[in-house]
Design a protein that fits this description.
Blueprint lengths: L5 E8 L6 E8 L5 E9 L6 E7 L10
Antiparallel strand pairs: 1-2, 2-3, 3-4
């Protein structure tokens, strides 16, 4: 989020089987989501699954 003013929201969802942690960055200017990181404890020797998504809105056009 280089040079962008944003808020980071963290959410931890403890579960009986898998822990689920989410971090979301929201632009203070537009209110749009900029990034989201999700970590899921898949259990046992499998460890943790990590997914990171970045959202760009610069070239968005309506369908033709």
């Amino acid at each position: 989020m280089a040079h962008r003013s944003c808020s980071r929201i963290e959410r931890r969802m403890p579960a009986d089987i898998r822990r689920h942690d989410t971090k979301t960055w929201i632009s203070k200017t537009t209110g749009l989501m900029l990034r989201q990181d999700i970590d899921v404890d898949v259990g046992g020797s499998l460890g943790t699954s990590h997914r990171s998504s970045r959202y760009e809105y610069g070239n968005v056009r309506p369908p033709v």
